[in-house]
Amino acid sequence: MAGLPSPINAAIAVTRFGLGAKPGEIADASADPREWLVGQIHKDGAPQPLSPTAAPFPDSATRFKDFVAYREAVKAAGDDEVKRKAAREALHAPTAVELLCRTQLAATTGQPFAERWALFWSNHFTVSVLKSEELAALAPSFEREAIRPRVFGRFSDLLRASSRHPAMLMYLDQAQSIGPNSKAGLRRAGGLNENLAREIMELHTLGADAGYSQADVTEFARALTGWSVGRPNQAAEYEGAFLYRANVHEPGARRIFGRNYGDGEEEQAERILADLAASPKTADHLARKLATHFVSDQPDPALVARLSDVWKRSGGDLAKVAEALATAPEAWREDAAKIKTPYELLVSGYRCVGQAPRDYGREVNNPLNTMGQRPLSAPQPNGWSENGSEWAAPDALIKRLQWAQGFANAYAPQDDPGVVAASALGARLSANTLKTIQRAESRKEALAILIMSAEFQRR
After folding, report:
1. 0.85 cut: is pTM over it?
2. Does residue 145 contact residue 104 with C-beta atoms inside 8 Å?
3. CA gyration radius, the chain
4. Helix (H) or strand (E) holding 454
5. How many Å apart are CA 194 and CA 220, to the nearest integer?
6. How far apart are CA 64 and CA 135, in angstroms?
7. Is the pLDDT of residue 2 over 60?
8. Which residues sit opposite 339 in a β-bridge?
């Protein structure tokens, strides 16, 4: 049984469900690996990154105002490149600080299952900083405000919060969507934007193969018109926050995915969101995605069915789904089928040696950019790939090796390399890998060998 004490189950709990073992962590999980995971599920959500100062991180409205100030500073600077560069650095500096703290949390947390669960949902509801300078400022606050507090609550609440957050409304161009027959649409040029409607249905809820039509997407987009973001000319409490604009809402009843929705201003889209969240198609789609993320690129159908069943019976209670995953026998297969993403590799490296990064550019952004996973920079709205094989191309492995060598040069511990390897992998450490590590010419070489071993690269 998964919950019974055993060396391999303790190693699986920490390296598959968590983020890689800190020194002593596999021993901490060994008494009951299943309960070690379940104990990290809290209704108040996943832990938040801690600011290096006593002050909290700036909220999305504050960061939006920072962007407005940046835009004015760039305009005032004209062709003065020094001033333009200084303005840009001032805008991006808080984002760099927060992303460093985010990585430090992952590297040090005693609740790695909760952190991995939060990172899964943050990637599921992707908001990428590549879209615009606005998103470069707002993306970290999106994860902190919309995602982390709700990852163990109801999926319907998580969906609503992510869909209404200013970062998502800007990322998928909802703030510019105007109903053609709305008061504003009849007076000026502008058009309906379907991006948010399409991604909510295709990515966030039902899945691309759920059987909805283009007409369903268009009707949902019409229902969403009016969902927007307050701009600088709005009242202060709306600037940079969710704002419903009645004058751009497309009037009329809607029929979407076989259901009728009467005209209802802002609430029309709310009702549709709630039904999408409650759809059995959503349960099936996200059960498979969770099983793929945590266990295998080709997940056991029994595991997918188990998660989907719990989802449906609980009404999308993500705490119950997380517990079902942590206790499902199919999730405890001994072979490590998933290749770590670059971020997972970097975090597990720091956890292995009991350290955390101290310089965002040098230790987080630059190596992850080189390995193809710059933080909060997914190239598409579907986020970073859950398919491990996409992270294992020959060129990608060379870049991993280069990072591992540089990391080992900086962080090789003074402890016996064999002890470090056993602490990092537990019962997953093979005799051949241990022998190779023990024969290394230096502690630095030994750590690089450990990081590049098949056991460490997989989870």
Report:
1. yes
2. no
3. 23
4. helix 454-457
5. 8
6. 9
7. no
8. 458
Upper half-sphere CA count for residue 115 (Cβ side, 13 Å)? 24
Residues 6 or more apart from 273 whose CB is under 8 A from it?
156, 159, 160, 163, 200
H/E segment holding residue 246: none
Among residues 125, 128, 127, the alpha carbon closest in space to that of 158 is found at: 125
For residue 211, give the amino acid letter.
G
348: Cβ contacts below 8 Å, ≥ 6 apart: 15, 19, 20, 21, 340, 424, 456
Tokens representing residue 6 in the block: 């055993």
Please report which confidence band the pLDDT of residue 55 belongs to, taking 50, 70 and 90 as the band edges: confident
Q: Is the Cβ–Cβ distance between 276 and 196 less than 8 Å? A: no
CA atoms of 384 and 129, how far apart (whole Å):
13
Average pLDDT over residues 223-249: 91
Q: 208 in helix, strand or coil?
A: coil
Render 26-67 in DSSP notation, one character per residue: HHHHSS-HHHHHHTT--TT-SPPPPPSSSSPPP-HHHHHHHH
Q: Which of 2, 6, 16, 117 is nearest to 425 (CA)?
A: 16
Q: Quote the pLDDT of residue 1.
A: 44
Q: Return the sign of the alpha-carbon dihedral for residues 68, 70, 73, 74.
A: negative
Instruction: Give per-residue burial for 406-438: e unless 16+ CB within 10 Å, then b.
Output: ebbeebbbeeebbebbbbbbbbbbeeebbebbe
- Tokens 């997953």 -> residue: 428
Average pLDDT over residues 60-64: 94
**pLDDT of res. 188:** 76
| C-alpha span between 426 and 449 (Å, rounded) | 16
Reported for 86-92, long-range contacts at CB under 8 A and 24+ positions apart, including other chains, are: 88/133, 90/66, 91/66, 91/67, 91/133, 91/136, 91/137, 92/136, 92/137
Measure CA of the first residue to CA of the last residue in the chain; give whole Å: 20
